[in-house]
């Protein structure tokens, strides 16, 4: 009714254009609040038409306008940008929402600066008004403040104390809601640092208000909430009485008694529908006491309150599910669904309903004699052989799965919402996408064990990878918007209504195979590691070009289900052990104890060596307990079809002789045939060297898995009836025969392994597990990051081929599709910028001085941010030898905004540490370099001592080919002294480590074997250089490589 009356008032002649625009904006915000996005866009379009065709408004955008006029116009623009941003977010266009939100904040800052400048000018000269250029300069400085809140200075000339003045009272609400909304958008995108920064700025604005009577304010707030909930207030929303209305009401209540004793009768009429717009000149009518119907209609329009109530019910239902009260949870979800009236809560409602159904399904599963072991069993996808394939089939032949539907999407948006235009929109945040894909992938893999022929592995693989790809896309789009130049006059244009909002495209599984898997170079493999929501299952997926994915679900407590005495070593225990080792190592690294005291130095070495042993044990347990027999999925061996066919025949004969199910049935045609990827897990364990390497426990893990696969597919065998020991002995013989017949050489091995890590797994040094010792390994945050680098590599190779066609004698060895080359003559380095690492400077200065004269250098002084930015954007190689990652000299935000970024070696303490932020996306300096386009970044996961990391850096430069061998630098380990033998801190990992021997690959392929010094990739150089560290694990395991293999070339 209020908006209806305002609309009538706006039609009166003489009403200003400003008032008309304010009405359209208020009406658009109301429509958006009730979920009518189509009409909201129409109202915003009407406001845009008025603003762009009214000379009064157009004049306010000119520099000749008065300050008061410009302030009014900027206020309208800021409010319009805010509502546009809310609308775009509601319809699923978070990118456009971010653009409008930034504009809203920018305009509010202009208003803030203008008011404060005007107030200051009045105090000084009375009438001096700042120009637009001065205001823009100020707000630009504010916009470029560091996102890192810890180092962000206060706004220079926009002081928060000034917001207490009366001139700012109307600005503070808009300023606060704009900053809060921008923080919410960055939270929606999963960007923690940006979200925190703007939330803190909004908090500063709120704190600037003088709340001296806080307790009284809380009492008033509670009283207001009670009033809002009262039936009288809700009924009163249907009308707002003006003075004229009050007079009419009072007159209608008068009783005029004539001399004859008769009374005048007042006429009572029914109230109109609250949504009906009544003109100002319409007759006033008295409402009847029928409140309930009116109240229900009004409540239905308060869909925001209903969304909150539904969200509370869903949260209570999820709590009930965790307490095993599924019946009560289902009832609460039914109540939530009955009041759910918008598309905002549609996805959470479906997720909660899905979890309730899954809880009930798992309960029923426990009573099934065949599938009751499914929750704690290892599952592979695929498990069974598909089609009749010949033993001599090509290695790159895909399994014959059913053709995946071309339009099958990773996210199927529910067709809900109050507008038809929003039915296909998905407005979920990155956290919601993670949750949806997690439950979808978990369910798909469970179903694959029971109905293997009806599903495709790509469905589960895409569920695992899409959240990380999606998060990367959103981050890169946010960065692109941030670095997009905007002219001052563009801020003063009325925001346009977007007819075709930009949204991220949801890929289907066929696109995922073609665009992310098939482009991987044939000599590489990508292995994805993910955790489930409860952190008790590890999902491992292997990707190789032209092959369907192979996925394994590994319950971390699966060993305990076979042996009740087995000590559980889950993810939380492993993470706690790693964190304690790192904390103790960091403390000892910076220990300021007096080493001249007797026993101090030997005690320090004893602590360091004890921590080195604990980290070694942790890595062994990660391999033996978490991966177990399935560590063969990380093996770089190349598929040998003929030899694998021989091993299949031998293994099937072993199963036929030892499994009761096959001894009873002689019908071979009904027996289950395992997928070739499962057989590759066996051969991936390597050769036991006639018992020199213990493979018994690994084989036992695989055999239990095979028995489960057979049971889920109709071949039931009781564990206690199977002689697993006999099967292990015979399988070892078959593996020896396979490896003795293998003719693979180093060149025929896969050259590189890419680890695609879940955001909770970046802290672990996976590359230093025994099974990956000496291998070329790097890590990326997502398959999207890998795809970007593969495409850049292809583009370089295309240029090299074009150059080769034009030149004679061109270096043909550079034309390799699996390699990216850097110009060795193009580089820059920073050495000891703090000036306190004199020992590091002494060790590294000689090899650095041999670099080409074209390199730029900064030694012994702190560089400016501009200097580092120029080095990163104009060279191929960037070396940093100092404290930390160099973030104290250049911000991550600055790096992300670069169009080109060099390959970087950040040889400082914790330069590669990835900080986790819960539901938000992780952050680290190497990830910022990757976001800027760097092909590779070498960094350390935790603090390291300077002598070991200096020795590592010199060795890495030699192996990579940056400089020749340095005879004055000792390559051998530092000799142990008697004083270093001390007590060892007891490891918190199970005692299982004592029975584990280093993997066979570490013996057969010593570090550096098969490659000349200087011919290695960066990742190979890092693997070889770990041996240069005296503390092989505590210091040697810290350096890792983010990105892909990069090689040096002297060619320009």
UniProtKB/TrEMBL annotation:
Q: Which reaction does it catalyse?
A: All bonds known to be hydrolyzed by this endopeptidase have arginine in P1 and an acidic residue in P4. P6 is often occupied by an acidic residue or by a hydroxy-amino-acid residue, the phosphorylation of which enhances cleavage
Its GO biological process terms? meiotic chromosome separation; proteolysis
Write the record's keywords in alphabetical order, separated by commas: Chromosome partition, Hydrolase
Query: Can you name a GO cellular component term?
Result: nucleus
The EC designation for this entry is: 3.4.22.49
User: Which residue numbers delimit the Peptidase C50 domain?
Assistant: 824-920
Query: At the top level of its lineage, which domain of life is listed?
Result: Eukaryota
Q: Where is this region: Disordered?
A: 382-426, 971-1015
Asked whether the keyword Hydrolase is assigned, the reply is: yes
UniProt cross-references to InterPro entries, sorted A to Z: Peptidase_C50, SEPARIN_core_dom
- Protein's recorded name: separase
Organism listed in the record:
Cryomyces minteri
